[in-house]
């Protein structure tokens, strides 16, 4: 493994922030506000960013907007952060996005779960292999939400593509994660808890060393407090943070995560940091629910 991949692996064993994509009054991406939100994350101590993640409304952005978000992130972060660019859709689109990220200087790509009603395990390997082989210089991180996928298939992918270095695992089952990681190779990959702070303690106990976060947009210090506790093995301390963010994450997870991004943007709007608008199929919170989110955000040490 190259020194570059070691640097990338270290970057994944951290709070992997998923920035929101703010929209202007006319509904377009708001570059100035996006840059300001990135600076807030960077100034708050965040060093790994994932533009075009689900909290960034990846599937609601058009190709030009996804390229813009990538460009803005890399320009604003400079040398201050490692960039893990979200790519996906059909194979040619994902490959083009990965190559675009490479040209701009990103060091890694995260491959979104294939959106297709019929995903075979062999086809999952083929999909990721086509993307990974197109950008052998980049670290590749599959985003796994498929509970049927086996660890052996991930091992097959990495046998063919040594640049597959980490995994964002987002199946809500800590026991399944523990088995999957060991079947694939616990020490072979960096395991990122892909369901963020609520699952981080249980996933860290089973071998994860990083976690993704959308909450970090609102309160970077809260997310950093959790990973510091987990790194030191202070699970009671981590659970104190868990209790602190519990209600916020319950609101995001309700009704099949219908308001996952909505709640984050509502919190940011309550702090005057961006507009609350999200794109369909998401929807802004009704007036009756906004006060609770604002109170939670105000109660954190921002």
Automatic annotation (TrEMBL):
It comes from the Bacteria. InterPro entries: Aldolase_TIM, DapA-like. Keywords: Lyase. Pfam families: DHDPS (PF00701). Belongs to the DapA family. This is Dihydrodipicolinate synthase family protein.
């Amino acid at each position: 493994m190259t020194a570059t991949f070691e640097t990338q692996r270290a970057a994944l064993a951290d709070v992997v922030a998923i920035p929101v994509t703010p929209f202007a009054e006319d509904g377009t991406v708001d570059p100035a506000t996006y840059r300001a939100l990135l600076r807030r994350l960077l100034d708050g101590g965040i060093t790994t960013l994932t533009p075009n993640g689900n909290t960034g409304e990846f599937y609601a952005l058009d190709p030009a907007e996804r390229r813009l978000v990538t460009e803005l992130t890399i320009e604003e972060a400079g040398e201050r952060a490692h960039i893990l660019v979200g790519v996906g859709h059909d194979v040619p689109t994902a490959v083009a996005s990965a190559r675009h990220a490479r040209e701009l200087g990103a060091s890694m790509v995260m491959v979104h779960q294939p959106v297709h009603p019929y995903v075979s395990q062999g086809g999952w390997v083929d999909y990721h292999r086509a993307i990974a082989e197109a950008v052998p210089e980049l670290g590749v991180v599959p985003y796994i939400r498929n509970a049927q996928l086996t660890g052996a298939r991930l091992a097959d992918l990495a046998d063919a593509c040594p640049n597959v270095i980490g995994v964002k695992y987002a199946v809500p089952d800590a026991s399944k994660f523990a088995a999957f990681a060991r079947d694939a190779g616990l020490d072979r990959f960096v395991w990122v808890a892909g369901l963020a702070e609520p699952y981080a303690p249980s996933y860290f106990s089973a071998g994860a060393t990083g976690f993704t976060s959308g909450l970090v947009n609102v309160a970077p210090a809260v997310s950093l407090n959790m990973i510091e506790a987990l790194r030191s093995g202070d699970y009671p301390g981590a659970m104190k943070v868990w209790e602190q963010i519990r209600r916020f994450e319950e609101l995001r997870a309700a009704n099949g995560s219908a308001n996952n991004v909505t709640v984050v943007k509502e919190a940011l709007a309550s702090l005057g940091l961006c507009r609350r608008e999200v794109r369909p199929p998401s929807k802004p919170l009704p007036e009756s629910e906004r006060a609770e989110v604002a109170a939670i955000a105000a109660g954190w040490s921002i």
